[in-house]
Specification:
This protein has helices spanning 2-17, 55-69, 94-113, 131-135, 150-153; strands spanning 78-80, 85-87. The protein has 166 residues and is mainly alpha-helical.
């Protein structure tokens, strides 16, 4: 049950935030060239995502993470020089561990807290936390900066410790 929720939440979040990531669009091929789809091996070393995640599901999820953080595969996955490709099963890079922690955190926030929002006016993406909620296309979360004029537009909305203006 929880496994289905995790996959559904990941795919739903990606569908809302990155619809192009899930459309299965392929890069155009050169004229006269034949396109051979690459067979993806069964995913291994899945510790946060469900063990039975299909290769296609995994690629869609990972593509969404890549877009949300503005990074390439080797940001989290080590490079296998002999194979000339990322070693997706390796846990060598600390960024992969961080990613797993962040995925778990996002899943927990959505399951425990965001699922409690029953605002009929809120759109689905407003009731779901995703990597892009904080990262906004950057490899580190983007800090929130309130506009300088924010408190002057809304009198009485200053920080509770702010003395009243006279």
């Amino acid at each position: 049950m929880f496994r289905r929720f995790v996959i559904a939440a990941a795919v739903a979040t990606l569908t809302v935030l990155f619809p192009s990531a899930l459309l299965g669009q392929e890069a155009p091929t050169a004229p006269g060239a034949t396109h051979q789809p690459m067979m993806m091996p069964k995913p291994v070393n899945l510790k946060v995502l469900p063990k039975d995640t299909s290769p296609d599901q995994l690629m869609k999820i990972m593509h969404g993470y890549s877009q949300a953080l503005g990074v390439q595969c080797t940001f989290c996955h080590s490079w296998d020089a002999a194979a000339k490709r990322p070693n997706f099963a390796s846990d060598e890079k600390p960024e992969k561990s961080t990613a797993r922690t962040m995925i778990s955190m996002t899943n927990e926030i959505n399951a425990k807290y965001m699922s409690q929002i029953h605002d009929p006016d809120a759109m689905e993406e407003q009731k779901t936390v995703a990597c892009s909620t904080c990262h906004k296309g950057h490899n580190m979360p983007v800090p929130f900066k309130a506009p300088a004029h924010a408190s002057s537009e809304h009198p009485g909305m200053e920080h509770p410790g702010t003395p009243p203006k006279e």
